[in-house]
Design brief:
The chain has about 325 residues and is mainly α. Helix content is about 65%, strand content about 0%. Helix 7 runs antiparallel to helix 8.
């Protein structure tokens, strides 16, 4: 797959402490709690306020889709408002979440997403949901086609690029620590063509973490990422320096739903690189909002791994 692509790797042990994918989005957390209780009007208000911020909309809908009863309450919303594109998008995302756990629901999820797309042709979110499904279940051609469908609607779509990096990283594990692997080319290309303040600037760091996941699973990297030289090559150091400089330049203007995902990747990389002071600055900004990836790589409890690294970095800073 050449460049113009919550990653799903192999099954892992359940984390002792749950990590909230809402990442501190207070409005999202409140709407999710209301949805679980059947008050879908709170979701309607949230999505109306989100508007055409496509990255934020995709983040919020995928989090809401995982809530208990999301599909059922979405159907109730659609009965009340048959032409609601927001209701259709919630149903599409919720049926994809169900299909990720049981492939028998794949046809239903595909149909639901296509209905949502027909109601809002400009919205990349139904195509993002299908990409989430194809990331796990689909062929490479399907993944590329769906990524293109998202990107034509929002060129810098954050989650879509992360999904494509995770998928590309899994190609040719036998090549080992190949600095010319296509995942690095794709990530560099995407970062170069993104807008100056885009968090896609961190995508090359994400590519290094996702490739480590694959190589560690294949046994060609040690299971302790901090003991690996994966983050200490000349290319890796350049990528990390560029991403950290980008964060320093734009930090005060970064207030997006998934920015803590990028900061988790960058803090993890800086810690593995052996630069605890820089990692500590990132941990301060992240606060308690750990993400599963990359702390779970290759097969660790992400909560424990995050807090161990955070304590070590803050203690050394």
């Amino acid at each position: 797959m050449p460049p113009p692509p919550p990653p799903f790797g192999r099954a892992r042990k359940r984390a002792t402490h749950p990590l909230d994918p809402a990442l501190g989005d207070a409005d999202l957390i409140a709407a999710r709690a209301a949805l679980i209780q059947g008050r879908w009007t709170a979701v309607r208000e949230l999505l109306a306020h989100t508007g055409t911020d496509w990255d934020l909309r995709g983040h919020r809908l995928t989090v809401l889709a995982a809530a208990q009863g999301a599909a059922a309450w979405g159907e109730e919303w659609r009965i009340a408002e048959p032409d609601s594109a927001d209701a259709a998008a919630l149903i599409g995302c919720a049926t994809v979440a169900r299909a990720l756990g049981d492939r028998r629901y794949c046809p239903e999820a595909t149909d639901a997403c296509h209905r949502a797309a027909a109601l809002a042709p400009e919205d990349p979110t139904p195509w993002l949901a299908l990409l989430l499904l194809a990331r796990r279940r689909g062929t490479e051609d399907e993944v590329v086609r769906l990524f293109d469908a998202v990107r034509v609607r929002h060129q810098d779509h954050h989650m879509a690029h992360h999904l494509m990096v995770a998928r590309l990283a899994e190609r040719h594990p036998e090549l080992g620590r190949d600095p010319l692997h296509e995942v690095y080319d794709f990530a560099a290309w995407s970062a170069e063509h993104a807008s100056p303040d885009s968090p896609l600037a961190v995508l090359p760091v994400v590519a290094h973490a996702e490739r480590y996941r694959v190589l560690a699973a294949a046994g060609s990297e040690p299971p302790d990422p901090a003991a690996s030289g994966h983050w200490r090559s000349r290319r890796a150091r350049q990528v990390l320096r560029t991403a950290f400089d980008w964060w320093l330049e734009w930090e005060e203007r970064l207030d997006r739903g998934r920015i803590r995902t990028d900061l988790n990747y960058l803090a993890h990389a800086k810690f593995c690189e052996g630069r605890p002071a820089e990692a500590a600055a990132l941990f301060h900004r992240i606060g308690p909002h750990a993400t599963r990836a990359p702390w779970a790589y290759p097969d660790r409890d992400p909560y424990d791994a995050f807090h161990a690294a955070r304590s070590a970095a803050l203690g050394a800073a």
